[in-house]
Amino acid sequence: MNAPTPAQPLLDVSGVTLRYKTPGVLVTATERVSFSVNRSDRFVLLGPSGCGKSTLLKAVGGYLTPSEGSITIKGRKVTEPGADRMMVFQEFDQLLPWRTVLENVMFPLQVARRLGRKEAEEKARHALEKVNLTRAVDSYPHTLSGGMKQRVAIARGMAMEPDILLMDEPFAALDALTRRTCQDELLQLWEDTKFTVLFVTHSIAEAIKIGNRILLLSPHPGRVKAEVVDVDKVSPTDGTAGQLEKKIHELLFADEAAHAE
Amino acid sequence: MTTTAPTTATTPPPAPDSMIGAARITMRDQSGAGDHLGEVERKLGLLETLWDSGFVRKALLLVLLGVIWEIYGRALQNPLLFPTLSETFESMRDGVMSGVLPMRAWSSIKVLLMGYVAGVLLAAILTIAAINTRVGTDFLETMTAMFSPLPAIALLPLALIWFGLGNGSLVFILIHSVLWAVALNTHSGFRSVSQTMRMVGRNYGLRGLAYVFRILIPAAFPSILTGLKIGWAFAWRTLIAAELVFGVSSGQGGLGWYIFENRNLLDIPAVFAGLLTVIVIGLVVENLIFRTLERRTVLKWGMQN
């Protein structure tokens, strides 16, 4: 095991250009995007729709191959999807409907990490306890609310203890109150285990709340506009978070304002 | 985030108010409102409960139809054309007692199962090839487009030449009647599995057959089950029809042959008894086997209502 030293980040994305084909058109989603994520980072990819942030996350997940540049995790090149990079999706149908909550969390432990039934169940129960779903372990996903489903998905990701947790706007489809609860819970979980997470969102407020580093992307095609570090040092009580939110908003929409004038 | 603050308060407040800036929060008393307590739930009466059960309603309907049948049969007084319900039941009882009817039914079901299982297996092979390769998809699509509209019974004359007078021919046309319906439904089921679910499966590192069996098949199960049901119905009809045409193989025909044979003997109550047996077996398979399968899978999983 080669532990990532400060010199070698956990995840390294360098000069990545992603293109995909739609009928008749070759779309460039991102162009020469570079960033690196260290261990225990809460790294947020933030940008308006069309900036390729979700596409970028899927490339890290191994679902897309960059047409330029490279993605490495712990020094290994990413070539295909794998359980060392667990995904949490926005869609509620990411849970397998034919398995109970417990079985949903156990399944990847059994097939990807080849754990025995007992060990998998132990880990799964522990993870579900952490997201406060002890009562729902034997329910089928269709009986859960949206917030509960997302918490199961997070528990499933965490139970696998992946190198990095990839979250693709996991709270975007939730109502405002549930979203806040889920954000708080995610931060609480991070306090407990200090896992590494790469988080995609289009909400500036969410990015400031969740992240300690934010990468701002500009659209058409997605390029890195700026990187914000030490985001966790700002605080909503003294107004610095509000100022940062305003500044980021200005940065992201500066071009549009310039066009409008 | 939006927060709403009640701005109007006409009644004297039951709990202490609080002021936040210029906004005021007025607490409402919820315990003493009591002019009418809203009814939350109420037990239904026995009759209402019974009437709500589809099974009871359908059973009543069946009894009613049975009574009409009996009355019509008795009024007609012509068992050669239309025997009464009781005559049919009698004939059925005799058939069961003598062992002829169960034997015929069993010989039908045996052939049916052979054809059905073979058809489903072939469909599985075709669809798995179809989702893994483009040639497989093209092959499946072309074959289903060609053979799906072709009634299985139309192949019987050819089957008789190829496989002779016997179960071989029956199994051949049964496979034909099952294969395309099951393959078509399974394939469209596979294709409608959501992108998210596919990505989840690949995230776990599942590939090849493990991916098919652990993700695609359960995810497409509602469509697969529909295909199996349609395939069963097709096969059952095809078999009875085919048995009417020939049916005797080494002295042992099936239910279709039983119907045909008794018609020739002008034992019309026995014809009706044969038809009733066909219906009963169909109902049992549909309501017991497929229903149970449905309840234990897609209904429990919330994939179908």
Descriptive report:
- The complex is a heterodimer of chains A (261) and B (305).
- Chain A is of the alpha/beta class and 261 residues long.
- Chain A folds into 2 domains: 9-84 and 164-244 and 252-261, P-loop containing nucleotide triphosphate hydrolases (Rossmann fold); 94-161, no CATH class.
- Chain A is built from 7 helices and 10 strands.
- In chain A, helix 2 (101-111) packs parallel to helix 4 and helix 3 packs across helix 4 (146-159).
- The radius of gyration of chain A is 19 Å and the shape is globular.
- By secondary structure, chain B is mostly helical.
- Chain B has a domain at 104-299: MetI-like fold, CATH 1.10.3720.10.
- Helix content of chain B is 70%, strand content 2%.
- In chain B, strands 1-2 form a two-stranded antiparallel sheet.
- In chain B, a hairpin with a 2-residue loop joins strand 1 and strand 2 (23-25).
- The longest helix of chain B has 33 residues, at 100-132.
- The A-B interface holds A 58, 61, 63, 80-83, 85-87, 89, 91, 93-94, 96-98, 107-108, 111-112, 140-143, 176, 180 and B 1-2, 194, 196-197, 199-200, 202-206, 210, 214-215, 218-219, 221, 297, 300-303.
